[in-house]
Specification:
Number of domains: 2
Helix content: 10-25%
Structural class: alpha+beta
Order of helices and strands: EEHEEHHEEEHEEEEHEHEEEH
Number of helices: 7
Shape: globular
CATH topology of the largest domain: D-amino Acid Aminotransferase, Chain A, domain 2
Distance between the termini: 18 Å
CATH class of the largest domain: Alpha Beta
Strand content: 25-35%
Length: about 270
């Protein structure tokens, strides 16, 4: 299965996904007017489903979607089981686009959904060198924590990363606080304490981020969320990123090297 070559769609007011994508010209393409979730389907379930449902519900509220007929995660799970069974593992991208066209002002406020299914591809466990971008920043907005269809800051950051021949880019807020990595949240460990930028730093509310924070707190480990300067990151013993497929450890930033030995208890959370 190549990248997203299996696509299903759910039309406005429909109650079922069907094969194909018959509505390529939509408000998602024209205006980035929508949301998406990237999810792992394994053992017949969406992993961390409660976190995905919570995040999409928040995004729909922030973007003022009419939620009538929008799928629930449980419905998507049933649909995927009916097509793939319980032994197939997939990476699923779920798009929710405001229906209709119009210009900036929508003509209607229902939804058009697509599911894009592909094999799971895991990222590298270690990224040899990262840098802190001085040109791309993550600004504040009511939807900064949501996964909207307008991901231009992350596109430009990763173009810059490629041009600089780096393995990871770290992004800051316009006033210089650490925010996130190019396609993942960022954590670091200094002695026995873990740190990560808070949502006040305009980062995406990553599902993996929440799962890890909850795990650390439940197990009595010290995890601090806050506004941090790049210099705080350089004090770390270990730096790693998290997204829905797992963790990656960063070896070098600005000439400083860090341990890339995986943390077993964290690796178990994200094991596929």
């Amino acid at each position: 299965m190549s990248d997203f070559n299996t696509v299903f769609e759910k039309l406005p007011l429909s109650n079922a996904f069907i094969p194909g994508a018959t509505n390529p010209l939509n408000r998602g393409l024209y205006f980035g007017d929508g949301l998406f979730e990237t999810m792992i389907f394994m053992n017949g379930e969406i992993r961390f489903s409660a976190g995905h449902q919570q995040r999409i519900n928040h995004g729909l509220e922030v973007l003022k979607f009419n939620t009538k007929s929008i799928s629930k995660i449980t419905e998507i799970e049933r649909f995927l089981r009916s097509h793939y069974g319980i032994h197939t593992s997939l990476r699923i991208r779920w798009n929710i686009v405001r229906s209709g066209m119009g210009k900036y002002t929508p003509q209607e406020n229902l939804s058009y959904e697509t599911l894009h299914c592909q094999d799971i591809t895991l990222g590298p466990k270690a990224k040899m060198e990262a840098y802190i971008s001085e040109t791309v920043t993550i600004g504040p907005s009511p939807w900064a924590s949501c996964k909207t269809l307008n991901a231009l800051p992350y596109v430009m950051a990763n173009i810059e990363r490629q041009e600089m021949e780096m393995d990871e880019v770290i992004l800051t807020t316009p006033d210089g606080h650490l925010s996130e990595a190019g396609s993942a949240n960022i954590f670091w460990q200094e002695k026995d304490t873990f740190y990560t930028p808070s949502l006040k730093a305009n980062c995406i509310a990553g599902v993996g981020r929440k799962v890890l924070i909850d795990f650390l707190r439940i197990n009595g480990l010290d995890i601090k969320e806050g506004l941090y300067a790049p210099q705080d990151l350089l004090k770390a013993d270990k730096i790693f990123t998290t997204n829905i497929t797992g963790t990656s450890y960063i070896k070098k930033i600005m000439g400083r090297e860090f341990s890339i030995t995986p943390i077993p208890m964290i690796e178990r959370i994200f094991k596929i």
